[in-house]
Design goal:
The protein is α+β, with helices and mostly antiparallel strands. Helix content is 22%, strand content 28%.
């Protein structure tokens, strides 16, 4: 095994949406930044995302805008600027699945929400949809609810990961944590990262190490005896249904809770079928249920909400996901992205975007910390000693793997 030394401005650990967005942002700002990933790029929480880039209206279903919704109101516009090549990162190669997300109500609660979605606070963010403009699945005369169109958009997440990785080719490397380790100084800060991909190794020094590994941040912090910031997990258990209908649907169904009763995103599979990926209350309230019971609940929901569709010959499966986030009192959902310098290690930043749509917000938080610590970009080239390291591949979406 060959061994060398290298020095960079910033070393990012974790190749999901958070790490890849941050790498793009730092490189655009002139930092000599690199990224290490132990598995596939985006292969965990990122690739399990439904791809929604939302502005928070889905959190307002109780009839009022909350701190959570206001914190991310600019996100759809921010991502659209990047898709047009005019933002802080270049996403021109990413694929848009839908320019809008829809929100519908069943007839039983239509009156409760109509006045809110007609109010000034949602102006410019929510539009009523005429019968002629409804998506195909809502054209059936059996649909008697109300339908709204949000400014939110939906992206093909693997294409986003691929675009971000392509922008920083030569700066993303595989790491084998069974053969890699940190060394620390007396004050607890990181002295070096002895990184290995299983065949090559390098002893790396960096002005700052940034942990963007999602659930993996917990293990990384344990390696350095970092106790704060701490992490929490909020589980989801999502049902996927593969069916023969051509209907691509991206929509929230409003129920009695402030959160969506059901969220549906659509994903075309390699065998030419569509998969509906089911989130919302079905996924958050069903985590303790067996897969079989949760699937039966999902079947009942779809039968109730789409009585004109027949899913009896569909395939069903379940995906369990732990949403990794900064620890909150009562394990509540964080309102915004998070980045903080570790209390026990002064050159380590621990960060979580908390949701896909807030990846730009997390990068802003990290960049602010770097400025406060007077860590400036060096504009140096990639260390040549990293040139032999392996490169991780793009993760495969769950709707391709779970049905096999």
């Amino acid at each position: 095994m060959t061994s060398n030394t290298a020095t960079v401005d910033i070393a990012i650990i974790g190749g999901g949406i958070a790490g890849l967005w941050l790498l793009n942002r730092l490189c655009n700002d002139g930092y000599n930044a690199i990224l290490f990933e132990q598995g596939d790029l985006g292969g965990a929480q990122t690739i399990a995302s439904q791809g929604m880039i939302h502005g928070g209206i889905k959190y307002a279903l109780g009839g009022a805008l909350t701190g959570a919704s206001e914190a991310i109101a600019d996100m759809p516009d921010h991502w659209r600027r990047c898709l047009e090549g005019e933002g802080d990162v270049d996403l021109q190669q990413a694929k848009v699945l839908s320019e809008h997300f829809y929100m519908w109500s069943t007839q039983s609660i239509t009156s409760r929400v109509t006045s809110f979605f007609a109010s000034k606070v949602t102006r410019g963010r929510v539009d009523n949809v005429s019968k002629a403009d409804r998506p195909a699945v809502f054209q059936d005369k059996a649909f008697t609810g109300s339908l709204y169109k949000l400014v939110d958009l939906v992206l093909d997440v693997p294409s986003v990961v691929n675009a971000l990785a392509d922008n920083c080719r030569g700066r993303i490397f595989s790491i084998d944590w069974q053969r890699s380790k940190f060394t620390q100084k007396a004050d607890g800060s990181v002295d070096t990262l002895v990184a290995s991909d299983g065949e090559h190794s390098v002893t790396l020094t960096a002005n700052q190490f940034v942990f963007t590994a999602g659930e993996g941040n917990e293990q990384l912090c344990a390696m350095l005896s970092i106790k704060k910031p701490a992490m929490q997990r909020r589980p989801l258990k999502q049902v996927l249904v593969k069916h023969h209908y051509p209907h691509a649907l991206y929509a929230h169904c409003m129920g009695s809770n402030p959160s969506p009763r059901l969220t549906i995103s659509s994903h075309a599979t390699e065998d030419g079928k569509n998969v509906w990926y089911l989130g919302g209350d079905l996924a958050t309230e069903g985590t303790a249920l067996s897969d079989e019971v949760l699937i039966e609940n999902a079947k009942a929901e779809l039968k109730d909400l789409f009585p004109w569709l027949d899913f009896s010959k569909s395939e069903w499966t379940v995906l369990y996901v732990d949403r990794a986030e900064p620890k909150q009192k009562g394990l509540i959902k964080p309102d915004k992205a998070f980045a903080e310098t570790a209390k026990e290690s002064g050159n380590v930043i621990v960060s979580w975007p908390t949701k896909l749509t807030l990846a730009p917000n997390m990068s802003d938080e990290v960049c602010d910390l770097l400025k406060r610590q007077n860590i400036s970009p060096s504009h140096n080239a990639i260390p040549v000693t990293l040139g032999h390291f392996k490169t991780p591949v793009i993760g495969t979406p769950c709707w391709e793997t779970l049905f096999k």
